[in-house]
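Protein: Deoxyribodipyrimidine photo-lyase
Species: Desulfatibacillum alkenivorans DSM 16219
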Amino acid sequence: MHKTDAARIRKLNGLPVQKGACVLYWMQQSQRAENNLALEFAVSRANDLGLPVVVVFGLTANYPEANYRHYLFMLEGLAETQKHCRERGIPLVVLENSPPLAALELGGKAALIVMDKGYLRHQKAWRAQVAAQASCMVVQVETDVIVPVNIASQKAEWAARTIRPKITRELDNFLRLPEKIALKNKLRDFDVQGLDLSDPQPLLKSLGMEENPSGVSAFFKGGASSAQKRMDAFIQKSLDNYSRHHNRPDLADVSGMGPYLHFGQVSAAALALQVKNLKDADPEAQAAYLEQIIVRRELAMNFVHFTPNYDQYACLPNWAQKTLKEHAQDPRDPLYTLEQLEACKTHDPYWNAAMREMVATGYMHNHMRMYWGKKILEWSPSPQKAWDVLLYLNNKYFLDGRDPNSYAGVGWIFGLHDRGWSRRPIFGTVRYMAASGLERKCKIKDYAARIESLRA
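Structure follows.
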């Protein structure tokens, strides 16, 4: 392994490697078989110990705020990952159990437990539980960011401009892919049978999951191969326009990698290198894309890692809370209920289109996400109510809801990672966005017409 990989690897308890039947990789965040340092570390240690590798995934029907849409996309990806692991002689066993209990169930047979890293509260708590209750050594491998979060910074950063130089200093050390290691002791069969992933829809029905909101496979199908096809098309057709068009929802010159990154079905480093290593691409477009997938994404990771209450209104910077409180009694007209918003029934056709895109596809162009959120703040009876509604809709409909990027994005609506602007009603000095701005910057009516066609 590369010398910098050691910075991604952390022993979580004081136990030694014990006599066991396998090295167990508890796969939860990094749901992929390629470019996954946690998996390659497990293979490397298994080779050292003369053991096979088993991968376990815990599937619980009550994952925090997850629904049918999220599960279907995830299981489509896991089925592909299971196939790729099997080709390497590694069984991927999906157990119907809470993730930490699934890891501990198979961990009793293991010489060593390897896990990937998550940044949200429940992800951290699950890993701490496994480390505390396992009977063998537990090692965590950070493989879903490019620069490890504690190396990039030791505190919650104020904005992209404060974390950018810190990441840039470390980038050459960490922007690389793990070596794919051949497993010496392959397994064809394993004595614990997991869930059958061949047809996710009946599996979800058996778990008691209602199809609400519905799956969006026609727009976003889960899995690394679907992600790569989408990324290849983006590079071929849209990348050279990215620096000029990434804020134009009418043109959709974006990669759409958010859902795949959220479930760890692709590696951020692999995507960054694919763009960085292009010989004939527009340099400004390359730089703009790398800014998003490295600096902006890792700013979000930094936010949730160092901000325990990242999903609560109180997480906002003091200046933003103060100015919003000063204008909390400002008249608000119109006001819309949650039911009206979910039904896409406001006076604003651009906002309605954005909401319809979200409900129908599980995705929304990032510039429209900003506008969509700002209008909910404007049309809600209080900033706190706007926060609650935004987070609810974000986590229910977006495939990449419940993600560090999503929590940072919701926070940005209220001033997180931003600065003060000119004072105005309702917003105070928090940034405002208007329909006239959309009309000035892009052909927003073309976007609305395209989204309207989704109803056909």
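Remarks: The mean pLDDT is 96.
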